[in-house]
Amino acid sequence: MLENALRVCFQNLNTYSKKPSDLPSICNGFIFILGDYDADSVQMAFKTHLKQSSLFPTPSDIVKIISPPDVKFDRSMYISCKQWIKENESAPFSLKERDCLKYIKAYEGRELEILDEENDHKDNIKISDSRVSGLINNLTKEMK
After folding, report:
1. pLDDT band at 1, cuts 50/70/90?
2. Closest alpha carbon to 99 in 113, 85, 79, 88
C-alpha cells in the first residue's frame, strides 16, 4: 500500500532530482517513520497530500496530515482572518479563505470552551460556598 502511494506521488508530483532508482530507499524512510500509524490513516494522508500539493511529500508532511500540530490561538491572527474575509468577501472562494474560516471557527470554539470551564469553576465555587454556609448554620444551631 505504501509503495503504491509513493509510486503515485512519484509519477504525479514534482520530485526535483529524485530518480526512480531512489524509490526503494525513499520507501524505507517512509516505512521507518510511518510504521507507527495505521494503514487507513496513511492512505488518507497521501490522498490529502496529492490533493493539496504539487511536490513530492516527505514523511513529516504525511505525519502532519495524520496528526496535525496543535494550533496556537492568537487574538491578532483571529482579527487578521476576520479582516481578510471582510476585505475579500466578493472574491472567489480560496484556500486562504477556507483556512481563515477554519481558524475563526476553532478560535471562537476555544473561547467558548474557556468560558464554559470558567463558568463550571464558578458553579463549583458557588456550590462550595452554599455548602459552607449550610455547615456554618448547622454548627451555629448546634451551639445554641
Report:
1. confident
2. 85
Please indicate, yes or no, whether residues 102 and 59 belong to a single structural domain of this protein: no
Residue the block writes with cell 481558524 = 103
Residues 16 and 46 in one domain: yes
Query: Which residue is listed with cell 445554641?
Result: 144
- Tens-place pLDDT, residues 2-32: 888 888 888 888 888 888 899 899 999 999 9
Full residue range of the structural domain in which residue 90 is found: 75-143
| pTM: predicted TM-score of the whole model, two decimal places | 0.52
Do 42 and 81 fall within a single domain?
no
16 Rama sector, left if φ>0, alpha if ψ -120 to 50, beta otherwise: left
